[in-house]
Amino acid sequence: MKDPDSFLLPRIDRWPARLDLLQSASGLFLGLFMWLHMLFVSSILLGNDAMWAVARFFEGYFFFGSPLPWLVSAFVATVFALFVTHAWLALRKFPTHWGQHMAYLRLMRAMHHEDTILWFAQVITGFAMFFLAPVHLYLMLTHPELIGPYESADRVWSGRMWPLYLVLLFLVELHGGIGLYRLAVKWGDFKDAIAARRRLKRLKWSLTVFFLVLGLTTLAAYLKLGMEHAPRVGEPYVPTWQRAAS
Amino acid sequence: MTASRTLTFHVFRHNPRDPDSVPGVRDYQVEEAPGMTLFIALTRIREEFDPGLSFDFVCRAGVCGSCAMLINGRPGLACRSLTGELPADISLFPLPGFELIADLSVNTGKWMRAMSERLQAWVHAAGEVNLNEIEIAMDPELAESIYELDRCIECGCCVAACGSAQMRPDFVGAVGLNKLARFRLDPRDDRSDAEYYQLIGDDSGIFGCMSLLGCQDVCPKELSLQTQIAFMRRAMARQGL
Ligand code: HEM
Ligand code: SF4
Ligand code: SF4
Ligand code: FES
After folding, report:
1. Is A143 inside any structural domain?
2. Which pTM was predicted?
């Protein structure tokens, strides 16, 4: 324990403020990125050609005339770094010893208070992502060229990644949705804070349901494609118009 | 009210100063009366069943803040809680995180005093105040908003409802953050944001709050704690830039 009469340096330590800002900024980026990511991935629902075009777009194909997969690697590395930073900052908030777990669980069981429960859901989903998200991130980092309708569907089905993706979908959507809601109430300046919070809560749940349904539909589409393509696993996708040309 | 109910109270009993006392829960049955508050019910229990039961009341009107307890797990003021709004089974526990005096009585005063001293929760004027001069008039709207935050009765509900405070005993709680928000508004307090940052610029202060808003949802005075905490957070975060 710190002696309250111990000498305090008169200098102020700006880091706690910076770390809090960085926690929120990294969470904001990751949360918004995951929503966009879901939209890009779900392009498979519009057809194989659409998904192929989205994947090549991020490799700069339409700017440079040929795909540059290292662009994707570089972006994945950035996301990975932010992910590690965010998780490291979140460790400051984790209940670390048993007494803290018990204190929090006792409060949660007694109070039946939604936001208190949601924070604990964030801790659990965040903790699980520690272990599960790097598997996916590493694959994208090392094999950025293997993103495409057949390539991804093969990974989902023949590569047996679908159970991981199914779990990650729920982890990310729950954690990110709660996190973005929390960001709003944490920093926001509202005229009527109570009404704003009620509206934000409703918006948060609607978006979570929307992205879960979209995610499950998308995963089902990749599963179906992956099963159909299993006999020719490994064959890359060629878009319809290039097939006609060759 | 329709046919009167028989209420069953499950009340925490323990006197830490009595070496023979074992912490436990005692049940009492009380006939519900119209307009009954927990204060009335507890007084009846003490008169009819258990003269040794300890609990605190002073104003019986939600002004003094001494009767806060866990009512079916949620912090609230016993004098302001109508039994009619509760189920027939009611559990009453002392507020967690404060020194237990006995049964439902806790020493919130000791906690509040330590917090106030640590946060230096009083007006800090830069110069000497001349008591013979007429005070500079304050804008009525500003006076109103300071008064609004001064309505805190230091009942401790926000501390008992806060996950951060329960996990980290050194956290100053919404009550502490609200106090500094109040002095920051006050033109008679000459402290700068850098000085407030010295007091709450770490995880025992503003950055320890995880925005769970339990405080906002239980505060019996309905203070705008979410708004005040976000306001202090923005001001203190600016110190980090
Ligand atoms: C190892 C992975 C992760 C862990 C351990 C983790 C953990 C946490 C924890 C415990 C919080 C609460 C922090 C606080 O109350 O101040 C939090 C906040 C947040 N997280 Fe994560 N998280 C992880 C990954 C992610 C990912 C992938 C996203 C994006 C979907 C994300 C988005 C957010 C957001 C938006 C917040 C709110 C930030 C704030 O309150 O300041 N997190 N995270
Ligand atoms: S802020 Fe509200 S809940 Fe907290 S001590 Fe003051 S009156 Fe009680
Ligand atoms: S918002 Fe939550 S963490 Fe912050 S003081 Fe209130 S209850 Fe505690
Ligand atoms: S007795 Fe004073 S607030 Fe309840």
Report:
1. yes
2. 0.91
